[in-house]
Amino acid sequence: MTCISNMYRLSQRSTPVNTPSDTPLGTPSDTPRDTPDDTPRGTPRGTPRGTPDGTPVATPVATPVATPSSTPRGGASGAFFDTCNTVVPTKRTERTRILTPVEKREAILSDPHFGMLSMVRFFAREEKYGYVLLPLSLLIGQWLMFFAVASHNFMEAKRCGSRSLTMKTLFVGVCLVYFVESIQLIDNLTRRFHYTTAKASYSVMVDRLHEDTYTLCVFVSNLVIIFYTEELIEAVFNCLAMQFLSQLENEWQQAYYETRLKEAARVFDTFFVTSSENTKKLKKRKRRSVLFRVVYTITEVIFKATTVAYWLLPVYSLAMLGCGVMCV
User: Fold this and answer.
1) From CA 66, how far away is CA 240, in angstroms rounded?
2) SS (H, E, C) 291-319
């Protein structure tokens, strides 16, 4: 009896004055009043009722009960998912950013290697067979008009046409503009995009080959054509015609996807991958197909040659400028 009375006095001595009379014996002094009696010791303050035992302390309050403890806050693999948006991971942190449909459209329009054959492939995949001939016709028409304009001027070229002061002024101005454009082309060539079209495709390889070689051919031939043109108005029209041909494909793509935002988003979700995914797909395709490996090697040699040519465009522009000034 004496032992029991001593224990009671000891508990009363360590209990704060403001502790309610119905508080169970052994309850910590900093426990809130509305805490249930069956709450396990060590439960942090603010834990909602009904939280299962073993839930990590850092688990957010809004996390569902059945969510595994290894799931990050943002969802699976630390990413935010949406039915219309795409996740853009960053390299410096594990945080992610949602890519909107408008940004998807800007991504496919800014990618120089998303061309006409890629659009043909998408139209066939979506069973929009009525649109298949549109990009093909544009691709063939570009080259036909280029060969027609170039051959017509080259056959009539006899001597230097920039002998007069007005023609020299025009040619010098065009060379300076092309010098600036050559720097911009090199800058675009060295840019790296987070998302790009998968290179493990024949259509993408042809689009890359067309984009690089066509731009290079227009750039080189335009200065030569203007150099041999004797009439000022004719030289201006030849310059505008070649510039129009080089921008025709991009302008058509922009006009087509201007009012087709959802379709542009589907194109992005279908053909665009990250740089790491692109490398994996390319290695896998090379291992599976010998023909693809041979074609890819040939196209890469052409791409390397065009890259060297792009780096020489500023020198070419300045050289043509000197030829135009010295023309007598």
Assistant:
1) 65
2) HHHHHHHHHHHHHHHHHHHHHHHHHHHHH
Per-residue pLDDT for 325 more than 90?
A: no
CA distance 80 to 180: 42
CA angle 47, 29, 7 (to 5 degrees): 130
Higher-scoring residue by pLDDT: 66, 205? 205
**CA 322 to each of CA 191, 317, 319, 327: distance values in angstroms, whole numbers, following the listed order:** 30, 9, 5, 9
CA dist., res. 64 & res. 57, Å (int): 14
Contact 157, 228 (CB under 8 A): yes
Distance CA 39, CA 92 (A): 41
Cα–Cα distances in angstroms (integers) from residue 259 to residues 50, 105, 113, 265, in the given order: 50, 11, 22, 12
Nearest to 115 by CA among 241, 214, 2, 261: 214
255 touches 162 (CB < 8 A): no
Q: Is the pLDDT of residue 161 over 60?
A: no
Q: What is the mean pLDDT of residues 155-173?
A: 74
CA distance 300 to 204: 12
The answer to whether 139 touches 203, Cβ cutoff 8 Å, is no
Give 18's pLDDT tier (boundaries 50, 70, 90): low
Q: What is the pLDDT of residues 51-87, one digit of tens each?
A: 666 555 545 544 554 454 444 444 433 333 343 455 4
Amino acid occupying residue 125 = R
| Average pLDDT of the chain, as a whole number | 75
CA distances from 232 to 69, 152, 209, 221 (A): 75, 17, 34, 17
Of 11 and 262, more confident = 262
Helix H or strand E segment including 86: strand 86-89
